[in-house]
Amino acid sequence: MSVSRETEPPENAADLFGEAWPQAQRYAEILGTWGVDRGMIGPREVPRLWDRHLVNCAVVVPRLPHGSTVADVGTGAGLPGLVWAIARPDIEMTLVEPLLRRVTFLEEVVADLGLTNVVISRQRAEDHQGRYAVVTARAVAALDKLVRWCWPLVAPGGVLLAMKGRSAPDEVEAARPLLRRLGVSDVRISTYGEVAVPTTVVEISR
Predict the structure, then answer these.
(1) DSSP string across 176-200
(2) pTM for this one?
(3) For the chain, give me the number of helices (H) and strands (E)?
(4) Contacts of 30 (CB under 8 A, 6+ apart)
């Protein structure tokens, strides 16, 4: 089954993926078929797969340092982790996901796409051992919870990139007491993408 015409990518999508564009298209096809059948994404998300999910993740890719180690906590169907791994073969991506059915899906997708820069870890963030230059999460939890889970994984000099929506300023304010206790002072809210709805990212540097 192929993706419906409704899910055709926007004009700028190919530029975001460069030589990996065929892999990105294949991943979109998988999400719109297997992903729905296996409960990874809802059927209503299929018409907006590119704008709301793939492009939303891909526009952040320039923020990743070359050759960096990256962990995507609670990756689910691989957003943003697989998108980033496709677009940036120079990074080493670890997908952290506790649920077996999601891990099985991710393993099948990685094999189908032939990705060699992805490791899948079936663990909760709290149990995961490792330090990374970049730790990210998208639609996982409120920022204060996310910081508790992810901050131990951020290496010295590294950054937590929490992908958020319009609630970002309120979530940062709610997390201030925790951030102060952790000695965190470098917090900024950034937007990425020359698109109708830019992607909002809370960047917390160690």
Answers:
(1) HHHHHHTT---EEEEEE-SSSSPEE
(2) 0.93
(3) 8, 7
(4) 109, 112
pLDDT of res. 38: 94
CA neighbours within 13 Å on the CB side: how many for 90? 9
The ranges of the chain with pLDDT < 70 are: 1-7, 196
- Listed by start position, the domains of the chain span 5-205
- Chain segment 79-98, per-residue pLDDT in tens: 999 999 999 999 999 999 99
Q: With respect to CATH, is domain 5-205 assigned 2.130.10.10?
A: no
Q: Which two tokens stand for residue 174?
A: 């709610």
Give the position of tokens 């990139």. 161
CB 140 within 8 A of CB 146: yes
Gap between the Cα atoms of 193 and 61, Å rounded: 10
Q: Which of 137, 15, 115, 148 is nearest to 70 (CA)?
A: 137
